[in-house]
Amino acid sequence: MKVFLSSLFVVFFSCFFLAAQTMPPIKPAKTTEIYFDFAKHDLRPEADSLLKQLLNYTKSKENFTIRITAHTDSIGSLANNQALSERRAQAVKDFLVKNGVLAERIRFEFFGEKQPATSNDSEANRQRNRRATVDVLLARSMVVVEGTVTDEKTGQPLVADVIFRSKEFNDSLRTGADGRFRKEVPAGTVLGLDAFAHCHFMGTSMVKAMPKLPPVTLPLKPVEKGAMIDIDNLYFVGNQPVLLENSKPELPKILRFMQANPSMKIEIAGHVNRPNNPPVGKESWDFKLSEDRAKVVYNYLVENGIPAERVSWKGYGNHEMRYPHSNNEREQALNRRVELRVLEGECK
User: How far is CA 262 from CA 52, 97, 132, in A?
Assistant: First the structure.
């Protein structure tokens, strides 16, 4: 069984990592768009002033490149439009070089009619497609984010898969036997680090990638019958069983945990915050809210391929609050939690 589970874990995460996005191109610091007359590549008078504004921006920048992408409308043959877009890109480059930009700082691409900004069904739309986009790209300093994935109980390192996610990219790597990970990312990036190891609950840490960032430790709780873990960052609209938009990325983590541990049967436990009050009745609105929030997670797992016999859901109202007499927001947030509870399945 151990070999089977480990093999399934490797296969699942190998497939996941093949689909993971790599780090994207640098986001433009400044963009200018200029337009051309029908079948022409000469710069219009207004293009002169737009490009000079862009050049003024670059004067205070030391390490930059300029990217030009040029396009046409759909009138004419593909070959002619491809050649026209190349001439348009070259015309922009020539203007920039003439005005002091080193040629080696400029790169351009031309797409003819293949990447229209809009449809070509009217003259106004065709004019929007006769364009060149000019982007100023600034080099970003990079910093190293490193750390270790460990077993929460023993402190021993774990072979684990670590996902790096930000607003700009998703990327991933697998630790060695020493549990260590190391990745270079753009400085200032706010990162979510998600760690997954066989026979362990998932773990998450949020960091800001800054110089001299201390090593990150990701302790993962081992899976065993009766073990419980809160689903972090799972927040709902007030008094509703509706997930907030920024909480939706938490659901795939639970799905990955279930896929990597196919012998597990779990309960999704929902709780509400009603401090300084007696336990609410099972027929009350509050109790039903705790059930409905648990069922949101249950439905997601079942809809994404987890057999229903492996998952159950249950509401607990305010019967198991962590802080029955809470008077601050942190404690109240911990009261209104959703948990995973392992019902069956030994992990060996």
Answer: 61, 61, 52
φ, ψ of residue 345 in degrees (nearest 5): 115, 105
What secondary structure does DSSP assign to 194-228, as a single string?
A: EEE-TTB--EEEEEE--TTPPPEEEEEPBP-TT-E
Among 137, 163, 191, the domain-final residue is 137
Nearest to 197 by CA among 156, 250, 159: 159
- In the numeric block, which tokens belong to residue 62? 């030391």
Q: The domain containing residue 344 runs over which residues?
A: 224-348
In degrees, rounded to 5, the angle at the alpha carbon of residue 213 between the alpha carbons of residues 210 and 215 is 145
DSSP string across 88-134:
HHHHHHHHHHHTT--GGGEEEEE-TTSS-SS-SSSHHHHHHHSEEEE
Phi, psi of 338 (to 5 degrees): -125, 135
Quote the pTM value: 0.63
CA distance 51 to 36: 14
Tens digit of pLDDT per residue, the chain (348 long)? 444 334 444 444 444 433 334 444 567 889 999 999 999 999 999 999 999 999 999 998 888 999 999 999 999 999 999 999 999 999 999 999 999 999 999 999 999 999 999 999 999 999 999 999 999 998 878 899 999 999 999 999 999 999 999 988 889 999 999 999 999 998 889 999 999 998 899 999 999 999 999 999 999 999 988 898 888 888 888 788 988 888 888 999 999 889 888 888 999 999 999 999 999 999 999 999 999 999 999 999 999 999 999 999 999 999 999 999 998 988 888 888 899 999 987 666
Amino acid identity of 339?
A: E
- 221 contacts 200 by C-beta, under 8 angstroms: yes
Using DSSP, state whether 45 is helix, strand or coil.
helix
Check whether residue 63 and residue 108 sit in a common domain: yes
How many structural domains is the chain composed of?
A: 3
Round to whole Å and give the CA distance between 159 and 200: 11
118 and 158 together in one domain: no
**What is the distance between the alpha carbons of residues 2 and 207, in angstroms, rounded to a whole number?**
34
Question: Do both 314 and 281 map to the same domain?
Answer: yes
